[in-house]
Amino acid sequence: MGMTLTRPELETGYTLSRSALAHFAEHGFVKLKNVLSAETIAAYEPEITGKVIELNTQHLPLEERDTYGKAFLQVTNLWQDSEQVLEFVSSPRLARIATQLLGVQSVRLYHDQALYKESGGGMTPWHADQYYWPFATDRCVTVWIPLQETPMEMGPLSFAAGSHAFEHGRDLPISDESERVLQEALSEQEFPEVSEPYELGEVSYHLGWTFHHAPANQSDVPRRVMTIIYVDAAMEIAPPANKYQESDLANWMPGNQPGETVSSPLNPVLY
């Protein structure tokens, strides 16, 4: 029953202001309020959370994990396991915002990823997502959708504004080293760090090369977040630059080769 009530919102347009478009172009990210209603989030959150619990492969206690493992529980391509998640991930509303921000005609799904930061979960070190992705251009963007109100103590995403144009540190995986090296480099370059809570229904979009990190979750509940990564539908695959990109090519674009346009069955056009 809930589905019929909430689906229209996922299909209708969202009006992006000129200032939001300008902010994204200048800073490499934008936060947008009221993209999803509380009702829509409430309709999909239990299914997403249930799938994270069911499909999660991280069973070590927090204190036994490395920095990356302490940062969050990570489950990818939930849409393949759930009709309801598929409906959420293929939302034309969310995809159309991505096309407008990227300034492209059409976007494909790269993959989705639930990022649940447990109570007591550690910081997510500074990094740029595109380090992991074998793409020929920077026309790829992640929507970060908290499934609850996210005050500062829960560890909301924070961005180095303008850092999408900064090429230093693009060769660093998420690690204690990336946190240290990038904190220093980003401070030297005087990229302002934008760190703010998220209201319920507020989401952010950030480019693949925008550096971001997140504080620890000091609250007593998990920080539940769903992300969807969009790429320009005409994106060409670059030769993988590291082992992570090799594995991403094999896992998220199966059958595709460097030099081709992204076109695997896992990468449908969403808008």
Task: Report on the architecture of this protein.
Helix content is 31%, strand content 20%. The chain is an alpha+beta fold and 271 residues long. The chain has one domain: q2cbj1_9rhob like domain (Jelly Rolls), CATH 2.60.120. The mean pLDDT is 95.
Name the CATH superfamily classification: q2cbj1_9rhob like domain
Distance between the termini: 26 Å
Determine Rg (CA atoms, Å).
17 Å
- Proportion in helices: 25-40%
Number of domains: 1
Strand content: 15-25%
**Apparent shape:** globular
Q: Output the strand order for the largest sheet.
A: 1-8-5-10-3-2
Number of strands: 10
Overall SS class: alpha+beta
Q: Strand count, sense and closure of the main sheet?
A: 6 strands, antiparallel
Task: Give structural attributes.
271 residues; 10 strands; Jelly Rolls; alpha+beta; four-stranded antiparallel sheet; six-stranded antiparallel sheet
Write a brief caption for the model:
With 271 residues, this protein is an alpha+beta fold. The chain has eight helices and ten strands.
SSE topology sketch:
Blueprint: H1 2-11, H2 18-27, E1 29-32, H3 38-55, H4 67-71, E2 73-76, H5 83-89, H6 92-102, E3 107-117, E4 124-127, E5 140-146, E6 158-160, H7 176-188, E7 193-195, E8 203-207, E9 212-214, E10 223-232, H8 243-252
Antiparallel strand pairs: 1-8, 2-3, 3-10, 4-9, 5-8, 5-10, 6-7, 6-9
